[in-house]
Amino acid sequence: MADTPGDDRTLRGDATPLPDQHHVDIAAAEAQFNELQRVLSIRSQQAGSEPTGRSATDHDLEKGEKPEGEEPFDLRAYLASSNDAYQKAGIAHKHVGVTWENLQVEGIGGAGHKIYVRTFGQDVLSFWFTPIRIMKSLLETVIPAIRPQLPVTTILHPSSGLLKPGQMCLVLGCPGSGCTTFLKAIANERGDYAHIGGDVRYAGISAEEMAKYYKGEVVYNEEDDRHIATLTVAQTLNFALSLKTPGPKGRLPGMSRKEFNETVRNMLLRMLNISHTANTYVGDEFVRGVSGGERKRVSIAEMMATRARVLCFDNSTRGLDASTALDFIKALRVMTDILGQTTFATLYQAGEGIYELFDKVLVLDKGRQVYFGPPSEARAYFENLGYKSLPRQSTPDYLTGCTDPNERQFAPGRSEADVPSTPEELEQAFLQSRYAAEMRDSLEKYKQEMEIDKSDQEAFRKAVLEEKKRGVSKKSPYTQGFTGQVRALAIRQFQMRLQDRFQLITSYSLSTILALIIGASYYNLQLTSQGAFTRGSVIFAGLLTCCLDTFGEMPVQMLGRPILKKQTSYALYRPAAVAIANTLSDVPFSAVRIFVYNLIIYFMSNLSRSAGGFFTYHLFIYMAFLTMQGFFRTFGIMCTNFDSAFRLATFFIPNMIQYAGYMIPVFQMKRWLFWIYYINPVAYAWVGCMENEFMRISFTCDGTAIVPRNPPGVNKYPDGLGPNQVCTLFGSVPGEDIVSGRNYVSFGYGLNVSDIWRRNFLVLLGFFFLFQLTQVLLIEYFPQYGGGSSVTIFAPEDSETKKLNAKLQEHKAARKGKSDRELDEKEFDEKADEKGAVTQFHGKPFTWEKVNYHVPVPGGVRRLLHDVYGYVKPGTMTALMGASGAGKTTCLDVLAQRKNIGVVSGTLLLDGKPLGIDFARNTAYAEQMDVHEGSATVREAMRFSAYLRQPPEVSKEEKDQYVEDMIEVLELQDLADALVFSLNVEARKRLTIGVELASRPSLLFLDEPTSGLDGQSAWNLVRFLRKLADNGQAILCTIHQPSSMLIQTFDKLLLLERGGETVYFGDIGPDCYILRDYFARHGAHCPPNVNPAEFMLDAIGAGLTPRIGDRDWKDHWLDSKEYQDVLAEIEKIKKGTAGDDEQPQKLTLYATPFWNQLRWVVTRNNVKLWRSPDYVFSRLFVHAFISLFVSLSFLQLGHGARDLQYRVFGIFWTTILPAIVMSQLEPMWILSRRIFIREASSRIYSPYVFAIGQLIGEMPYSVLCGVVYWVLMVYPMGFGDGTAGIGGTFFQLLVIIFVELFGVSLGQFIGAISPSMQIAPLFNPFIILVLGTFCGVTVPYPTLPSYWHWLYQLSPYTRIMAAMLSTELHGLTITCKADEFIPFNPPAGQTCQQWASEFIHGFGGYLDNPNDTTNCRYCQYEVGDQFFLPLNIRYENRWRDVWILFAFSVFNFAVTIVASRFLRYAKR
Questions:
Q1: Paired sense of beta strands 368-373 and 360-365, if any
Q2: What are the tens digits of pLDDT across the range 123-133?
Q3: Per-residue pLDDT tens digits for 931-948
Q4: d(Cα 628, Cα 681) in Å, to the nearest integer?
Q5: How far apart are CA 290 and CA 299, in angstroms?
Q6: From start to end of 1040-1158, where are the E strands?
Q7: How many CB atoms sit inside 10 A of residue 520's CB?
Q8: DSSP sequence for 208-229
Q9: Sign, Cα dihedral of 547, 551, 557, 559
Q10: I need a labelling partner for 1449 at 20 to 30 A (CA). Which of 798, 1020, 1285, 1378 fits?
């Protein structure tokens, strides 16, 4: 067998002892413990041997260094003693062996079956076919035979095997070979697949029974870390433990729950070396918390806290450095041995030391089992099949390499013809081998043993039962009862709320500000006729603002789904417990907030001042708040994404507002719609508040409510209510000037005050419980977890892309059959002949001298780089390496000119000249985070980069051809039309490099291009970079733990140690001999079987081991001959380029002119919106729906006085449009800005182009929405009867389009000034409420306090209402209906006309019977103008108002452009 390098062999040269592959070998376990104990002890002792330049207190806790005086943690002793104690106490063990026979997994989507992206056009069409689709699905439910069969693909072909308790299995395979699917199938996570066949048993228990009764005993740790960002590490673990603490029978005698939890938590934290993070937030992309590697360990600890017995780890060492990964697997080994767990794991880039810790290895190739057996014999097995032995390659890389057609090499004299090389052949070879026979034999024996001897199974069942808390059903898979689960969840939610300070402060401040605004606009209402209608208004405004505030619950319900999915699969709690806990934990916060809110509004507006009145009001408003919270949460739980929830909610919101009984009293509602009032919770709350207020008060009838009354300058009529005058308030009694509140609501709104408790409160309470119940049922039985399987989505081909794809596939087919090595030599030569050196790069030499970098920190500045020298030449690849925290990415950022904080000093020269303003666009920087426009295809993304970054002299055809070459070189032929958001990690990484290469840079920077890739993909990527360098590209690249094969691909190495000090810069040499020779000269001799890349990091003290030698390595470097050589070489490069007298070119910041930038940015935006049907169609749907529903309530309005009021309400709904647009547009804008920040650093296009492009992209859809809204508003309601006529209705269209434009520009303005998606929506309710309240209609202009008049002038809504009302009502003849006349009797001997003429002349209106002497019928308005003139609106100003509205949009847009230029919220 080939000699294999041990990637974990330490400087002492000893390797980890190998456990016997068949079962736990006691001697091996002993040795194992000692080894782990030794490593963990080194960690605690390392505090004593600090590298120079760091104080004794400056420990790097990330690397596990312990503060002084802390005891070394002995995992062996801890676990062994606790295990003995459990056995003495008679607590049953849980040993679960896993067997799988003919396990086959099928996923949805056939071979060659492509899923295409949905577009706006398709969505609009499919909307009209909705009734047909519903009928079809109903038919299919009734007659299952007609249901079309979905195409399925076999992901995992039949495989068999077994893993006994105390054993560990490593699952290996290239990406896409089915490793994750295998783990999920073993972990009983079957929801994402079409069908799972075969028999999986756990200690003889079937998978079905396991899922039903023992769900939490088999767990799966996914690759992504999903946690609640605002909880600390300790709180995250405490939560998991509190739900998994065993009952009294499952704990040691005398040990309390609290002690048990603390012991286990501390053990996990110390075992994974994250004790120092206990009180740090877990964090995520937006919340600063622990580092990525620590977050991965929190995921592992959380899973171990469940104390499950079958553990499946999916790439759980991602983001961990080699030493931490090895420690973790060793700890896993110890736990598996002592506790008898059964462990499966897939690992990427696993070192030899990790590999040797496993008992079994399973190799998969395209879903087929090609090896299952002892790890020690796997290498020899593949060599015997005819594969070449590669001694320097670690075994896991070698095994996956044998299944990769690009990677494998055959033994001398062998070829594909006589070596099994397809997945099917490899599978057959394995099935005929002795390993398969042994596996089948041991599987049969183990199954028989499980049938006869059920002791393990019984012990397992008994142990699970004993762990349950008292009172928990025997059949329940949970350890805690339902109330216990709700309690734990409520505590967690409470902690989250309390710790999310920003959210708390903003929600409290906003609600208080809103209350103050509402209170101030209805300040101190009097008990006069003016205070009657406005009392109803203030109650309605207060209630509605409070209820609509809960709209924000919808997106929140969706964000927590992945965490819910993970924790319910661990059987921590039932999903239903979450819904109840959410409500309970929210009450303490919302109760105080709404109490303050109500207090301000109630007493500022002078509602009935009594304790009973206030608390009844508060109770109704708060009940309405909780009910609506439940209502929106129900939608959040029910819908798959935010856009569909948004559509559904807008289906209900307009009706809830319209049919609350305030805008239209219930007895005046259309007969076919009045039932909405009775199923509307907002109506019961509003009615309850109205009855509560008006049963306590009476009004004095005065002023505008008396008919007839004195106009200015006339004193014909009595000042009070005389015998020949009437009070127009509802419920007034002739001759009495006091109107009782009870009568007012009874006659005006049809309300009976005695219903307040017996009907309104009880119904509201019923709604509250109903929505709690809907949440519980939906989350429990119809959970929407979203994001199940990862499917690649394609854009449909057009004639051009069809030809291009055919050509790519032709080339690909021609390459097949030739070995990769032959191709590498020929490929670029052919390309050069074919297209005239298209892929020949023209790199330029880049040098840097004496580079220092300082950043501001609290209390001063810190130096991150110190006197760094180096150079990159065309045709070479330079690796930039160093320990974690040595400043690799910082150094790359500084060299690439990407830093925007801190101070950089030193000399950087490109081609011997100082860096010009075009440096950023002439160089390419592939960042670690792959940020791209998700809706573009791979080809579109690369073309976008080529069009905007290559000079305009290069023709479009050349750029297109260059992109095709890049697609081929990057091996993305099959994904050329795939949408970026659906690509996997590796393809996205290649795309990032492709997008940068499309600019034909003179220099290429890459930041950790191999992180997150498996060994195979990493090797393919570096091989590709080597190809580029060989063709003249200059490359500088940071790299994370390269294997010994990878490091040799580079020409030069720049090695940094902590503090940004240089340790080495120079050649690497074949087999790294130059590098090893340098270290050997200074006392660090690299053993022949050790990976030099890891050795040198150990040698300089970067890992766990102390530094070699007593002198700092940076001092060795400064005294070395190599250092002098570097300085001399830099001088030589500078001299060599100084003589190049190129024609001086005009330097520009961007490669292409402004209009060209705008053209491509707008094109990309248009494609993006066309491919985002949820976003665009939701907006169209909401516009159409609101307009239609409002029109249905006000269908074909007549010319009566009440119809006049309804016309005003119908127009007022227009002001809701900006709110709709803003709430949707802000998140979209902020996501686009993230992409712009990445692209702006490469100077692809200017911030002005970005802002203008965003606006232009939105315009066509805004106009379409405006037209649809207008058509459904103007014609059904019967607008255009006034003097303005049909022309007036088209004027209304112009106003509505300007309203849309205002909404878009305001949304973008708020997006531009907001740092994140969480903050932007907080501005919306405040802005909309202020604009709506002060536009002179909600609070009529004459009654608006004078100190608010400036806000009235400033509100764009003032202009909307003025322009639309004056156009619609100007010259509209009013004819009162019989019940709308105000009757009064003139004094004896006078006609109606004689008695009321001065009054009518002063205030307008008309008399229906001017010559009668009794029962005069007075109509309040004669023509529409009489309604709007008192409101300070003039018909002749309507054009002025429209252009003022337009000017607001222009202002918003200008501010957005400025904000895009200066506010990026991206510090680096």
A1: antiparallel
A2: 888 888 888 88
A3: 888 899 999 999 999 999
A4: 8
A5: 12
A6: 1052-1057, 1061-1067
A7: 17
A8: HHHHHH-GGGEEEE-SS----T
A9: negative
A10: 1285
**H helices then E strands: how many in the chain?**
54, 29
CB contact at 8 A, 680 and 659: yes
Given a contact cutoff of 8 angstroms between Cβ atoms, the answer to whether 717 and 725 are in contact is yes
Three-class SS of residue 270?
helix
Cα–Cα distance measured from residue 918 to residue 681, given in angstroms and rounded to the nearest whole number: 62
Q: What is the DSSP string of 878-938?
A: EEEEESTTSSHHHHHHHHTT---SSEEEEEEEETTEE--TTHHHHEEEE-SS----TTSBH
Nearest Cα residue to 1066 out of 1081, 1051, 1079, 1076: 1051
Q: Is the dihedral of CA 309, 311, 317, 318 positive or negative?
A: negative
CB 339 within 8 A of CB 83: yes
Q: State phi, psi for 389 to the nearest 5 degrees.
A: -85, 135
Rounded CA separation 1078/1065 (Å): 11
Mean pLDDT comparison of 514-528, 814-828, 1317-1331, highest-scoring range? 514-528
Identify the weakest region by mean pLDDT among 745-759, 860-874, 962-976, 1005-1019: 1005-1019
Q: How far apart are CA 1137 and CA 1142, in angstroms?
A: 10
Average pLDDT over residues 1268-1286: 92
Find where tokens 């191709």 sit.
823
Q: Which of 1207, 1185, 1182 is nearest to 1194 (CA)?
A: 1207
Task: Render pLDDT for 617-637 as a digit per residue (tens, 0 to 9).
Answer: 999 999 999 999 999 999 888
Helices 985-997 + 956-969 axis angle, to 10: 140
d(CA 352, CA 440): 28
Tell me the three-class secondary structure of 1433-1455, residue by residue.
CCHHHHHHHHHHHHHHHHHHHHH
CA gap 628, 649 in Å, rounded: 11
Q: How confident is the model at residue 1396 (pLDDT cuts 50, 70, 90)?
A: very high
| Size of the chain, expressed as the number of residues it contains | 1468
Distance CA 394, CA 1090 (A): 10
Q: State the distance between the two ends of the chain, measured CA to CA, in whole angstroms.
A: 50
CA dist 309 and 305 (Å) reads 11
DSSP per position, 782-842? S------S---EEPPP-HHHHHHHHHHHHHHHHHTTS-HHHHHHHHHHHHHHHHTSTT---
- Asked whether the CA dihedral 1413, 1419, 1424, 1427 is positive or negative, the reply is positive
122 Cβ neighbours under 8 A, 6+ residues apart: 1173
Q: Where is pLDDT greater, at 818 or 1341?
A: 1341
* HSE, side-chain direction, 13 A CA sphere, residue 1105: 19
- Mean model confidence pLDDT for the chain: 84
| 1101 burial via Cβ count (<10 Å: 0-12, 13-18, 19+) | buried
DSSP E strand boundaries for 1332-1437: 1382-1384, 1406-1407, 1416-1419
Residue-wise pLDDT tens digits, 537-555: 999 999 999 888 888 777 7
pLDDT at 688: 96
- Give the Å distances, CA to CA, from 686 to 549, 618, 1137, 1197: 16, 12, 81, 26
Reported as type and span, the H/E element at residue 987 is helix 985-997
Cα 258 to Cα 671: distance, rounded to the nearest angstrom: 63
Q: How many whole angstroms separate alpha carbon 104 and alpha carbon 568?
A: 25
In angstroms, the CA 1169 to CA 1176 distance is: 7
What single letter denotes the amino acid at residue 40? L
| β 98-108/152-163 pair status | antiparallel
1117-1122 own/partner pairs: CB under 8 Å, 24+ apart: 1117/1062, 1117/1063, 1117/1064, 1117/1065, 1120/1078, 1122/1064, 1122/1065, 1122/1066, 1122/1078
- At 1295, the pLDDT band (50, 70, 90 cuts) reads very high
